[in-house]
Amino acid sequence: MKFWYSRSIFAWLFLPLAGLFWLVSVIRRQLFRYGCFRSYRAKLPIVVVGNLSVGGNGKTPLTIWLVQHLQQLGYQVGIISRGYGAKTKDFPALVQANSSPELVGDEPVLLAQRTGVPVCISPNRQQSIELLTQQFALDVIISDDGLQHYALQRDIEIVVMDSQLGVGNGFLLPAGPLRELPSRLQQVDFVVANGQANPYSQFVMQLKPQYAINLRTQEKCLLSEFKQVAAIAGIGNPQRFFTMLQQLGLDLIKQQAFSDHHHFQWTDLSEQDKHIPLLMTEKDAVKCQSFAQANWWYVPVETQLMGDTQGLLAKIEQKIKDYQ
């Protein structure tokens, strides 16, 4: 919603509903806090990577970074996710690198492919945790999203914010993009800004691409070797992907944005020029693999986290030791 990022008349018109949203969310959280609603405490530490606003902010790249660095410290990590967009009804479901994105969701498949650790999806996070701990010897579980899922008790909360979009107009849904007020950021353990620092952040995350991979052949090609390209993106902020390519010197002769978690079909892309390379995000590629054309490439990114990363990892490590 464009009006979420300005205080236009449309935002003000929805403000009474935003007030109702705030009241319901505050009451709900207090009911969990005082034990009126049951919340689940796992037998190992839970790290929640979430956000305040709707849409993608970069949670998945940060989750991958956390998994990789915790593995380097010698810890066994599992990942849970709601599995947004998953069509399976068989919850909880373990996700493999070759699982169908349509059945289990695009981001869980991407997480399984990039990390190689156990991934489980379910709207009921307790079910996912119990299945993972029954089948795998784990030290810590990372919840990809779930900041507002107060039925799950957590040990560390990390919020990821899009530097370009920030908190929008500062209003709650439906007048703005926020699920909780910006004051909630004072209660979390860490705030990570995706792109550049903002007044709330202790860390800055930047996504660095170096090459593209062909969907059919898995051939790698440096992005500097591409000149004129077309690009698509079905992520929370498609313009970020297009801008990244342009900043690398690529000439985007065509760009097409889709909604986040869009279920791609051949008809969506059948009119793309077969003589021009088509670049897409890694998350989109997992859904286009089965009907990929020879000129389709995806652009993986490596996460660089700037700030006191040793302090962040040390805090997680201490929580792991507390449970042992």
From TrEMBL:
Reactions the enzyme catalyzes: a lipid A disaccharide + ATP = a lipid IVA + ADP + H(+)
Tree of life domain: Bacteria
Entry GO terms, CC: plasma membrane
Single GO MF annotation: ATP binding
Functional note: Transfers the gamma-phosphate of ATP to the 4'-position of a tetraacyldisaccharide 1-phosphate intermediate (termed DS-1-P) to form tetraacyldisaccharide 1,4'-bis-phosphate (lipid IVA).
PANTHER family: TETRAACYLDISACCHARIDE 4'-KINASE (PTHR42724), TETRAACYLDISACCHARIDE 4'-KINASE, MITOCHONDRIAL-RELATED (PTHR42724:SF1)
The protein, known as: Tetraacyldisaccharide 4'-kinase
Provenance organism: Volucribacter amazonae
Gene: lpxK
